[in-house]
Amino acid sequence: MKRFTHTDGTDILVSDDALLSDWPTYTENVVVAAPLTIRQSRDILLAETDTWGLADYPATAEQTAYRQALRDITGQAGFPTNITWPTKPS
Predict the structure, then answer these.
(1) Does pTM top 0.90 for this prediction?
(2) CA dihedral defined by 44, 78, 74, 11, rounded to 10 degrees?
(3) How many domains does the chain divide into?
């Protein structure tokens, strides 16, 4: 498993050795063209925000919009080769 850091500070994990051999330098506008890897990365980012949905930690509108944008990544017109990652709210 190899870890890449997104420009917003979040980590992207890649476990497929075949993908690692062709993996470009990760920037905000370059994403590996593998739907499973993108979904795995999205799932990791969603998991990091799971506490936003707890009853004692109500999510803000920005947090809810961020989580929805992560879920909608697979519906973007450029998926899987050209997607735009949402920015995590502070």
Answers:
(1) no
(2) 0
(3) 1
